[in-house]
Structures are given as structure tokens and as C-alpha cells.
Amino acid sequence: MSLTRFEACLVGAVLGDCIGALYEGMSVVPLSTVLEYTSTLETNRKIQREHGTRPADFYGLRFTDDTAMTRSVAASLLEKKTFDAQDMARRFSQEYFEEPNRGYGGSVITVFESLKNPDLKDVYEPARTQFEGSGSYGNGGAMRIAPAPLFTFAKHKTEDLQDLVSSVTRLTHTNILGVHGAILQALAIDQSLRLSSASDLDVHAFIDSLVEKMRLIETRDKDTSPKPSPAKNPKRKLDAHPTPYTAKLEKMKEFFQKDSFETSEIVKEIGHDISALGSVPTAILAFLRAGTKIIPGLEDRNKFEQTVLYAISLGGDTDTIATMAAAIAGALYGMDLIPEPWQYYCEGVAEAETMAEGLFKLEA
Question: What chemistry does it catalyse, as a reaction equation (predicted)?
Fold first, then answer.
């Protein structure tokens, strides 16, 4: 394993977050619009290189809570060299109160308020008691989980990764759908890291491996949620399936048997919202489609760029879907495919590289 793929996993996640945040909440995001903006990044960087100054009317892109919490996960793992619930919970809360304007959701803020209490003995309690005890089913666990598969990579044990992901996620999201979404995202990154090269990416093999793992996990845990989850969207039939993540992965295989499929189909069947169930499978689909099919309008873009641009074009929770898709893509493609202008204009890239290097050294 090379350092460049660890770096690209975390750097890619930052870029997906920063660029995707520009379109968050838009139900329809024309691909041409996203492409035009990233082309502006590249043009402005060229101007700066030629003239030594940044265009006066152009500013850098700030990261959101996705990256803020990812950094906290990485920092805790690097310092403690193990999972320390108290330390990670403290970092989450401290990060929020130092910079609260990063787009945090209202429900997680109440968790941070409780975690701020120095007398709190059980750091899992605030999240566990949310929503009348059902816990949050959002994608906040999955969006920040990229450091976990980097941390456990050398162990080659899926169980270790699952345990770490569950522990990290339950600090804020205890609903089983939120936990399973984070596990699925971490497994996808892990699988991507373990491919020898981009040419080894096979859609059906990649999905089948995830299906095998998630079916076991969902079957084992299907009765552990305290009450029926409100995450099940009545408009999406697969959300009501007994093993919904497995069902959505199987549905993705059907999509890839066709020459093309429309965004409307993806949104209808898989989703693009803030729930883990409605966004993690979507991010994986974006990675696989960009990695194995030519996306009209992006023919001159490399596979990493296509992943980010296509993920954003799916609309909805664009920053989180893009950050997750980009983390998976970066773990396969490495830094060579990540555009320098994107890195230059996005906040937090240098820190992501440093943290990735630290995690890589832990595994050496």
C-alpha cells in the first residue's frame, strides 16, 4: 500500500465536501453547472500562476461539519493510537464550539451541548436518548468515517473495522441504520484500498463483496433498533426491506446491467437525502459509475474528477454524498488524479495530507 492512496482518501473527502457544499439541498444540479465551476477553479489557478495574484473577486472554499468531524476522528486516533471514546467525544464538542458555523445539524448540536459537561460519565448517553430513544439515522457517522479504514488497514480484519466504526458512530448516531450506513461506507473505502490498481475495479465483484458483508451485519442486527426507524421513506420501497442496505446494493447491480440510467431513477430507488440509508449507497454508486462507465459531458475528466462531479450532480445532500464518494475514489486512484487547483482553493487539504501520513505511519 502506498502513502498516496491514504492521502487521496482524506484529501478527496475534503474536496468533495468543499465543492459539494455549494449545491447542498438542490434537488437538481445540472452537471454542466458543476463542471463550469470547477473549470473556473482551474482557470483562476492558471491566472494566479501566471500573474502571481489571485483574482480579486474569487475566494477559497470552506469545509463543512463533514470535514470538521473527520479531522476530529483522525486526530483522536493519531494521538491515542486506539479508540478512546472520551477523547473523541471531547474533540467533537470542542470542534463545534470553536467553529459552530460549519453547517452542523440541529440534533447533533444538542449532543455536543451534553458532551460539554465535564461531569458526564457516559459519553454515549446523549446520542442514545435522542428521538425518544430511537437515535439518529442520519449520515453524520458515515460522512466522517474515512480515517477508520485507514487506521485498521494493516490488521486485515473486517471485525476490527466494524467495531471501530460502530464505536465512533454511536457517539452521535445510535439508530442502527445510521450505524450500518457508516459501516458500509468504511467497508467500501477498505475494499477500494485493497484493489491492486484502478484496472481491477469490477462493479459486480465490488458490490457482491459488500453484499456478502452487509447481509451478515444487517441480519445479525435487524432486531437491535429500539423501535421502527423513521428513516424508512415510504416513497422508496427498498427502505422498508428487512435488510435495506443489502437490498439497495442488489438494486445497484440491476442498474449496472443497463447501458445507462437516469438520475431520477437513482433518487427514486436509492435516494440522495441526509439519512444514511438515502446517501451512503448513492455515494458508492457514484464511485462505481464514474470508475467503470463513461459519463456524458465528462469524457475529458479523469476517474476521480468524474466521481466528484457526478456525485454532486445527483443533488440533495451534495456535500456529504460527494465527500463519501471522493473518499472511496481517492483510496483507489491516489493523489496523481486529484486536480491541483481543486486542492489549492479548498480549505483543509494540507491538514488532511498530514493526518493521512500519520495514519500511514501507524500502519507501517
Answer: alpha-NAD(+) + H2O = ADP-D-ribose + nicotinamide + H(+)
